[in-house]
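Thread: quick sanity check before group meeting

JM: Hey all, I'm pulling together slides for Thursday and realized we never actually wrote out the predicted structure for the chain we discussed last week. Dropping the sequence here so it's in one place. If anyone has concerns about the input, flag it before I start.
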Amino acid sequence: MGIISKIDSFISTVITRLVGLLEYFLFLRFLLKFLGANPQALIVDLIYKYSGILVSPFKFIFSNIYWRGHLIETSTIVAMMGYYVAVLVLLGIIHLFSRD
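JM (edit): ok, ran it. Output follows.
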């Protein structure tokens, strides 16, 4: 295994783990919105505030859905898919340039 392969593997691992954390964070937002968590609670407010930055590029693509009194925030779902696809493309580019 060459040095380029080791660097590629390290970068891929770091990116994959960071995106995994991002996906968990966005899923937490989705779950809190779905369950109707009180936005005045400090932890919920912090999660909404910081995840809102990540979701904002995807707002208004689809309308939110209300199902049996629960909010399904489609912008969070689209954001999760969008970031996942972006990372797949990024990893593909990294692997493309790091071939031995």
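AS: nice. Helices lie at 3-35, 42-55, 74-97. The chain has a mean pLDDT of 91.
JM: adding both to the slides.
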